[in-house]
Amino acid sequence: MRLSSFGVLPVSIRQKIKLLAVLCVGFVLTGCDAFSPPEAKFVVREETTELTDDVADSVEKELESAFGTPHELVAWLKLPIDYGGIPGATEESDIEGPLNKFPVAFDAEADEVFQSQFREEDGEFHFGERGTRLDWVTGEYAGQTMHVTGYDPEKNFLTTREKMEIAPAAGDTFVLSAGDKLKAGRALYMEHCMHCHGVSGDGNGPTAPYLNPRPRDYRLGQFKFKSTKPAEKIRRDDLSRIIKYGIPGTYMPSFLLLEEDQLLALVEYVRWLSMRGELEYRADQELILASGLTEEIIDERIEDGDTPEEIQEEVDDAVAEMPELFDGLAEGLAESWAFAEDEESLIVPTVARVPDTFESRARGRKFFLEKCTNCHGYNGRGNGSMTEDFQENEQTKELYPEPGLFDIWGNPIKPRNLTKGLYRGGRRPIDLYRRLFGGIGPSKMPNFATTDPSTLWDTVNYVMHIPFEKPDEYTEVDQEYFEQKKAAGGEEPKTADRDADSAEIKQTSTGTTESSDQG
């Protein structure tokens, strides 16, 4: 019987079983009896703290039920996470209880895992007197934990430390050594990532206040540099590439020396943290926007005549329905993260790259003038007019106190200075194509998914040539564009000297100056 991997168990199973097991994570400090480090804790979002006490406590309770704590992780099978472990199922047998041995079937890939992780002797795998963990997913013993002391791969029999009064039925599913990958990812994250990204993945670790740009906050489930279409989540491959090679121009270093299994474990833990944070965010939005269960809103309602008894009834209903709310939100969240791994989510150009010729770059320059100069500036120095305008905060609907651009986390950002040839999302042509096609949603860079692919390739060719551009190389293209724009009734464009190297770009139409990107 072939089984799917643990991270993609059949939907019916994932939906029926909420909690697989508590995965205990601990570490021992030797020689430090007089000192204990502060306990790592997941912090809640600011929006959660704005809810009434009863509702906020209920949100925290559901989060802990579904995800656990940093030291006691929980594998929630509703989410598309590869927690690690070896999935299996029981086979039909005429053995009657009580028994501690039964026939099983594993995925074809399990043999390799057994060989790499467990000791084999006389044709059998041995797991010591304590045994290795076995968590039942479905069947008579669903939700229970046992311990396997041996496995005979020739006869396909597992031996457990515990005796069972009733033999498991054929097809009952279980996971052996559940959660190994998540626990390994957590250990690596705490060692390499926590000091910047924080225990909760909120981008607020101990070193974060001293970094610019700020470390990523995973908790919205959004990432800047991905290979998927605009509305889709990031893929495992994208996270793996970012962790492996780092992000140029930021404090995100390369972890190229990690072993492949370590890298995959770290990717899975980051995805897990992101899903945890996004689920909390979606719940908060539902409770605040739809139900208005914050202290501030309730105070206003009481002033307007609502009775405390009426409001308390709403609060009680929200608390009672919290498990159902989390289940429903998790289903939608799981679908979106799972679809990101589907080939349909990937940005794949429908035409081959256009040859990098002057004609192609000239067409790309024209597109750049039409679509990109408001942010990146006439010369691609990241000094467009948007960097001097006051922008609206999409959440508060108020203007930011400072001019310039801000990302969805409220951090000030500057458009890329393309003259430097430094691209944070990767410098391959396909990387730049995907930035154009998919945009960079969290930083407000729009997508051009409906633009002709050949035009995008022309623009890729032009952008990659900007660092090597000669003065006045595209004078004719610029003049033609500006004349067409002026004839159409547009404002007279601000032109600039193409060979300017200083921080001040002379504007021939006004004589004023404009600062270039310093980052």
Describe this structure in words.
With 519 residues, the protein is of the alpha+beta class. It folds into three domains: 86-177, Thrombin, subunit H (Beta Barrel); 219-345, no CATH class; 358-516, Cytochrome Bc1 Complex, Chain D, domain 2. The protein has helices at 11-16, 46-50, 53-67, 110-117, 180-192, 194-197, 236-245, 260-290, 295-303, 308-320, 322-339, 358-371, 373-376, 429-438, 453-465, 475-487; strands at 19-24, 68-69, 72-76, 86-90, 99-106, 119-121, 124-126, 132-136, 145-152, 157-164, 173-176, 405-406, 412-413, 504-506, 513-515. Strand 9 and strand 10 form a beta hairpin. The longest helix has 31 residues, at 260-290. The chain starts with 10 loop residues before the first helix and ends with a strand.
Topology:
Layout: H1 11-16, E1 19-24, H2 46-50, H3 53-67, E2 68-69, E3 72-76, E4 86-90, E5 99-106, H4 110-117, E6 119-121, E7 124-126, E8 132-136, E9 145-152, E10 157-164, E11 173-176, H5 180-192, H6 194-197, H7 236-245, H8 260-290, H9 295-303, H10 308-320, H11 322-339, H12 358-371, H13 373-376, E12 405-406, E13 412-413, H14 429-438, H15 453-465, H16 475-487, E14 504-506, E15 513-515
Antiparallel strand pairs: 1-3, 2-3, 4-5, 4-11, 5-10, 6-7, 7-9, 8-9, 8-11, 9-10, 12-13, 14-15
Helix pairs in contact: 3-10, 5-8, 7-8, 8-11, 12-15, 14-15
